[in-house]
Amino acid sequence: xxxxxxxxxxxxxxxxxxxxxxxxxxxxxxxxxxxxxxxxxxxxxxxxxxxxxxxxxxxxxxxxxxxxxxxxxxx
Length: 75
Hints:
Blueprint lengths: L20 H22 L8 H23 L2
Helix pairs in contact: 1-2
């Protein structure tokens, strides 16, 4: 008797992305915030202990990273 070959059943699997469009937009915003923080950290003045370089810029960078974590965890 001849063996009947059965083809595997092909399921229409819809590939879904892990993140939504909103998540990607929030991630891009968080990257922009971090970049602004690093630009503030560069500065143009010669004073290395300026308020902008020592306090404001690191806080902006940390806020950008926190916003990025929020963007990843948002459902």
